[in-house]
Write a structure and sequence with these properties.
It is a single chain. The protein is mainly beta. It has two domains: about 140 residues, no CATH class; about 325 residues, Methylamine Dehydrogenase, Chain H (7 Propeller). Helices cover about 10% and strands about 40% of the residues. The chain contains five helices and 38 strands. The strands form ten sheets. Strands 1, 2, 4, 5, 9 and 10 form a six-stranded mixed beta sheet that branches. A four-stranded antiparallel beta sheet has the order 11-38-37-36, with no helix packed on it. β18 and β19 form a beta hairpin. It is globular, with a radius of gyration of 23 Å.
């Protein structure tokens, strides 16, 4: 059973306050439309006697000897007090977790939330289940939004899991690192999770409850203004396409902006109302939208979709990343595995291979001038529940079709969970961002360098993502502002 790490929990709550699923493991037995997050003058709660009986039954039904851990559940409570599980934190899908989900599904021991004496139709509440000394206990945990947001606005110290490699960082002196934050600029908020740089060189950043642009000197609010929600709500993904159109996913809506007007896309027409990531494909002009409904593709004004109904090899419709390579192959990462559709339309599921992608989901990809592919990895089928430094790292697929995985055990990777890989065509190096160990520079030979808040001007070890501008200058989106890494 997985333990909850405060860092992981806070990341999900902060980055998806208005999203449907707060936690990484989505439950499919809960039909969710519109609901509010732990809202109401009177909060949703449990009827004490009924809930105590539920916990007693779970203790009797499950063998809890020698088990210790804690799991968070996001529970949807309807107006009648009936509950169902939206998401939880146990990606290992332990049998005890499944039994808890089963017990909570349809449980009528909740009391509905009320606002101004009116019952809320649907409310999401968080509940923690903990096992220690052979006994299970549970309680509702309220989300203090202000406290969570405030806790993020501080640098995160690096956690270097690789204790063998000696980082000389000989190239660090060759870079000028510049930081813009809410203390030294007019950046409204330091929490920058998504970034794109448009064809004119204008930087676009998502911030907490907002969207801004940066022209190198000044930040400007750039939120859409065409919905009833108005300005200043959460934005979760952003990308620029070949025509310099900016694509944005805001709360429950997808928008585009052509530098003159905003356009909102009706979910009934395009088939999705939310995405994990938006990816532009420069060679084809396609824009990929990765969502729980599969891979949605926008190309020359038309929308299409790839899902399990069309590609039987897809292990799941929950697509977190997808991109075409120079050979016109589509690489798709889902929460249940990775698939490649070749130039002839044939799909290969890597769960059926013996490569390093078996049991992995690709979360980003880049390609060098020779056709070698670079991937960041997420291990969805984790063998050791609760482990932080998992069997992930990065992988390289060479032009001869072979793969090699690089982790903290066999290379200079300082930590195995990576957010982004970018190939630098000018320096012929690979840049890798992590959420615990800062920025990694790999020269594709034997030299690894690791830059973070303890040895450089980079203000934190948490780097959400990164991109190059039109001149090849590297920009980092971090929880401590915008960072530029420029060769002197």
């Amino acid at each position: 059973m997985n333990k909850i790490f405060a860092t992981i929990l806070s990341i999900y709550i902060a980055s998806q306050l208005s999203a449907q699923n707060l936690f990484p493991k989505k439950s499919d037995n809960c039909v969710a439309s519109v609901f509010c997050l732990d809202c109401g003058d009177i909060k949703a709660d449990v009827e004490k006697e009924k809930f105590e009986r539920l916990i007693t039954d779970l203790n009797l039904e499950n063998n809890l000897t020698g088990i210790k851990g804690k799991i968070m559940f996001q529970i949807l409570v309807d107006s009648t007090g009936r509950g169902c599980v939206l998401s939880h934190t146990d990606v290992s899908e332990n049998i005890i977790t499944k039994n808890i989900v089963k017990a909570l599904t349809g449980f009528r021991g909740f009391t509905a939330a009320k606002t101004k004496d009116k019952i809320e139709a649907r409310t999401s509440v968080n509940m923690s289940f903990e096992i220690k000394n052979g006994e299970m206990t549970a309680r509702i945990e309220r989300v203090d939004m202000n406290a969570f947001k405030k806790s993020f606005d501080k640098p995160r110290r690096p956690e270097i899991f690789n204790k063998e490699y000696v980082y000389k960082n000989e190239n660090l002196k060759n870079y000028q690192i510049t930081v813009w934050n809410s203390s030294n600029s007019n950046l409204p908020d330091n929490m920058n999770d998504n970034i794109t740089i448009d064809r004119k060189g204008l930087i676009w950043l998502t911030i907490d409850e907002g969207l801004v642009t940066f022209d190198g000197k000044t930040f400007h609010h750039a939120e859409q203004n065409i919905t009833e929600k108005g300005n200043y709500f959460s934005y979760f993904a952003i990308e620029t396409d070949n025509d310099n159109i900016k694509w944005v996913y805001g709360t429950k809506n997808i928008y585009s902006y052509n530098d003159q007007v905003w356009t909102k896309y009706d979910s009934s027409e395009i088939g999705i109302d939310g995405v994990y990531e938006i990816i532009n494909n420069p060679r084809t002009g396609e824009v990929f939208f990765c969502s729980d409904e599969g891979l949605t593709i926008y190309n020359k004004g038309k929308w299409s979709k790839l899902d399990k109904d069309k590609i039987k090899e897809l292990p799941s419709n929950r697509v977190t990343f997808a991109q075409r390579d120079s050979r016109n192959r589509i690489w798709i990462g889902t929460f249940s595995g990775t698939v490649m559709i070749d130039e002839n339309g044939k799909a290969i599921s890597f769960n059926e291979t013996k490569t390093v992608l078996k049991g992995k989901c690709i979360t980003s990809m880049d390609e060098d001038e020779n056709g070698n592919l670079y991937f960041s990895l997420y291990e969805f089928d984790r063998k050791t529940p609760g482990q932080v430094n998992n069997n992930e790292g990065i992988a390289i697929r060479y032009t001869d079709g072979t793969f090699k995985q690089f982790t903290s055990s066999n290379s200079g990777m300082p930590f195995n969970h990576t957010n982004k890989v970018l190939y630098d065509k000018r320096e012929k190096v690979l840049w890798i961002s992590t959420d615990r160990a800062g920025l990694v520079r790999y020269d594709l030979k034997d030299n690894w360098e690791n830059y973070h808040s303890d040895n450089s001007a980079i203000p934190t070890s948490y780097i959400s993502t990164m991109c190059f501008d039109n001149n090849g200058v590297l920009y980092l989106a971090t929880r401590q502002g915008l960072v530029k890494v420029e060769r002197k």
